[in-house]
Specification:
Blueprint lengths: L2 E2 L6 E2 L1 H20 L8 H17 L5 H11 L3
Antiparallel strand pairs: 1-2
Length: 77
Amino acid sequence: MLVYLTKNPQAFDPETVTLLSDALDKAWENVQASGARFEGNAEDARNALAKHIVDLALLGERNSQRLIDGALARFKL
């Protein structure tokens, strides 16, 4: 299964999709642990975090911890 991005004709292989999904879950756990409040916009916040992770992956990053740290830094946490 390949995941195609609408704005970018690149695709991720299943292994990379799993890596990105796991990185998002771990990054989101960090966001929740930080005590951040989103006033009903948690889904939008998680989507923004996911976008940061995908953006890093599109630049070639495949290290899970760097994906997490980079996304959190861009997310301002």
